[in-house]
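Chapter review: from sequence to fold.
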Amino acid sequence: MRSFLAFPLLLTPALLCAQGALDPAEILKPLTDQWRTYNGDYTGKRYSGLRDINASTVKDLSLSWVARFTTGCGPNGTGSGGGGTAGGFGRGGGGAPTPITVGGLGPGDLNTCGPARLGGGMLMVDGIIYISVPDNAWAVDARDGSILWHYYWKTRGGTHTGNRGMGMWRNNLYLEVHDDYLICLDAKTGKEKWKKEISSFDQQYFSSVAPIVVGDHILAGTGNDMDAPGFLQSFDPETGERQWIFYTVPMTADDPAVKTWASLDAARHGGGQPWIPGAYDPETHLYMFGTGNPTPAYTTGRGDGDNLYTCSLVAVNVDTGKMAWYYQTSPHDTHDWDSTQTPIIADMPFNGRTRKIVMTAERNGYFFVLDRVTGEHLVTGKVGLYNNWASGVDEQGRPKRDPTKDATIAGSLVNADVTNYPPPSFNPATGLFYVPETNSMHINYLIDPDPRGSMGLGGTMSGGGLSYGSFIDAIDYRTGEVIWRHEVQGSSGLLSTAGGLLFSGDGQNLVAYAAATGKPLWHARIGATGNAPETYLLDGQQYLLATGGDQLYAFVLNR
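The C-alpha cell string follows.
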C-alpha cells in the first residue's frame, strides 16, 4: 500500500456549511450509513446492515486515505507538530496549519507530545469523522482524511488512560478529559461552548468514558483506582447542568445493599466505577452498563458479602436515574474483575419464543444472557480455556469464587483477564456473539497482609506469567457454548456486518473473517488495531475505518 502525506487544509466556509447536526432520534435507527454513537447505535451490537462489502467483494477493498495524528503540547497547543498531519489519495493542502482551539486549566507542560494513541470509538456523521485521544479531539473529512480542526486541552495531570470517544447531540460534541471535565464543543468549529467539572480531581478520579446521548440526557461515567465511590451522571445537553446521579455503591444507611459490605463507611469507599459506555433500550427507557471492581480490590477490609453493586450489570431509568434491576457477575470480587465490558441487547428466539435479551462477556471469563426487562438470568457460559478462579456457578448462574485462588503470601496460580474493554459484536443472522479471548495465568502474591486491606488496587504483586494464546471466540447466545475460535495475537474490538463478515485485528493486520466460520478472507497490514473497526456509507460507497498506532485508515470498496 502507498500513502502520500499531505498538509491539512484551512477550515473553509464551504466545509463548515457541509457539516450537519445530529438529531438525537437518529441514533435510534439501525446501524447503516453513519456511525452516530460509541457503538454505532444503542444496541451495542456493532452490527452494520451494510452488505456491499461481503465474502465475494471484500477482495476489492483498497486504501482510500490515511491520516496521522500528533498530539499538542505547550501553552499554545502546537508543540512539535501540533494539530497533526493528514494524508490520502485525495486533495492536498497548501501548508496552512490546522485551526486549533486551546482549553483547559493546566500550564500545558503536563501534556504528552508526539504520536497520538488512537484507541477509542469514532463518530461519522454527515461526512465528518470525529476522533479523540487523551486531551485532544479532531474533526476529519471522511472523503479524503483532511483534518478540519483540532481541540487541545491543557491538562492538570492525573491518571491518563485511553480516551473512549465522544458523544454528539445536534451540533454539540461531548468529550471527557482525565482531569475530570465534561466539555461541550461546537461540531463545526471545535470551539468550546462550555465545560463542567463532573468528578473530584483531588480525589483522584479520572474521566475517559465516551458520553452517551439519550434524548436530552448526556450520560457520563468516570473512573478511580483509589477508594472512592463510583457513579453515573446525566447532564443537560444545552447547559451542562446535572440532571441526576446514580451511585454504584450504597451511600446511605437505608440502602439494602449496605448489608453486603462490612459497614456503610466501607461501602462509601467501595469503588464500582463505570468506565465503559453501555446499551440503551428505548422501549423500557433502561440504560444498561457495567460497574468496576470493589475497593480495596484484592485484600480484606470490605467484609465477606457480595459488595453490591460492584462487578455488576446495572439497568437504570434514563429519565429518573433510578435502578430497575442488577445482576452481579463476580460476587465479592478479589481479582479486579471489572464488569465494564460492553453489553449487547437484541430481540432473539430463546426456548421457543422471542425474548428481549441483554448479553455480556466479562473480564472474569464468563458469558451471560439475561432478560433485559427484568434482569432474569437465562444463560451462563465459560469463555476462557484456562480460567480457574471459580469453583462453578450458583443457582443464579453467577461464578462461585474459589478462596484458594485469592492472592496469598506464598502465591496462588490463577488466570488473568480473559477479555477487557475492546468491544464485542453480535450478528443476529448467525446468532453468534463475538468477543476477544486471552488465556494466561500468573502467580498472585499477597504483599500486604494487614487485615484492614490496602487502598485501591494495592496489596499484591504478580509473577511467573504464562500465556496460552489469544483468540476471537464466536459464542452461541442460546447455550453459552463457543462455536469456533480463531487464534490471533493480542486483543482487538470487533465489527460484524450484514455482508456476512467479521472485522477485527490479529495483532499485525486488519482482517475480514467469515462470520459463520471464522475463516480469514482478507487482510491489510496496518499494525495493531485500536478499539474496533467501523463502517459507513458515503457517496454511495461503503467504507471501512480502522486505527493503527497514530494513524487512521479508510478503506473503500471499489467496484
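Two observations follow directly from the output. The radius of gyration is 23 Å. The longest helix spans residues 13-18.
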